[in-house]
Target: Zinc ABC transporter ATP-binding protein AztA
Amino acid sequence: MSHHHDHQHDHAHHPAGAIRLSNLTLTYHRHPVVHHVSGSFAQGELTAIVGPNGAGKSTLLKAMMGLMKPNHGRVERHGLAPREIAYLPQQAAIDRDFPLSVQDAVLLGDWRNSGWFGRISRSARQRADAALERVGMAGFGGRPVDELSAGQFQRVLFARLLLQDAQLILLDEPFTALDAKTTADLLAVIAGWRREGRTVVAVLHDYEQVRSHFPQTLLLAKECIAWGPTTEVLTPANLARANGMPQNWDDDAPVCHRDDTGAPTTPPAHDHTLHSH
Ligand SMILES: Nc1ncnc2c1ncn2[C@@H]1O[C@H](COP(=O)(O)OP(=O)(O)OP(=O)(O)O)[C@@H](O)[C@H]1O
Model:
């Protein structure tokens, strides 16, 4: 492994970019989809979130972004204002069927400087052009976004993230449906964010890609199966456990018997609240 701790993080208690999950439970219609997850995302590091379909990965990102309220536990964003968190949803969730030039789409990333309806400065336009160049889209500024291919559009969204200049960057399946060249180019942008000391958390499905590019991994299957260095997390045993997660939506799932620390507790032998007599 390389020297990825060569930059010093000397913020003693609450380093910027640090985000911690404390016994976090997230539910839809009272069904938990993320269940008692605790841990910290390594600051200034790249962490992959992997797990089977329906494991709660996208839901967890939404909660980290503050778009969803925990039913239990907390997301602790020490030292991170909401504006310092950037979030790229799954491409399928993004509507780009409106008239907007590529440059204007990138400039939306600069809203905290220019305001939604503020004047766009010349320097902002220059930064937008530089960002487009960095993602391999130089010269595309005047094109309408609805005419771009899926891969080109994703490059534009990465340019927008570059302008946003966030400390914590959350990416939901950023490479789905992209070809190898586009994926490699965008992985290089992510590596650049790491060199700049930013924290990146990405939901991914390609284990080889995760092993090569993401030093940290959270393996999620509703519960946390493993979280730490990728080589220790992506073991056959852990993956088998994750893939054993029930896929069906269990309407009769047992009531959760855990205390507030997240530690499993033994369900009471005769729980009168669950049985009618
Ligand atoms: N808006 C919603 N309303 C109700 N249930 C939802 C909603 N969004 C997700 N779910 C359910 O929550 C569970 C977790 O979904 P989530 O999208 O977080 O999983 P995921 O790990 O991102 O899956 P995938 O790999 O398929 O994208 C699934 O069972 C899903 O059906």
Observations:
- Strands lie at 19-28, 31-41, 46-50, 72-76, 85-88, 168-172, 199-203, 216-221, 223-229.
- The two ends are 60 Å apart (CA to CA).
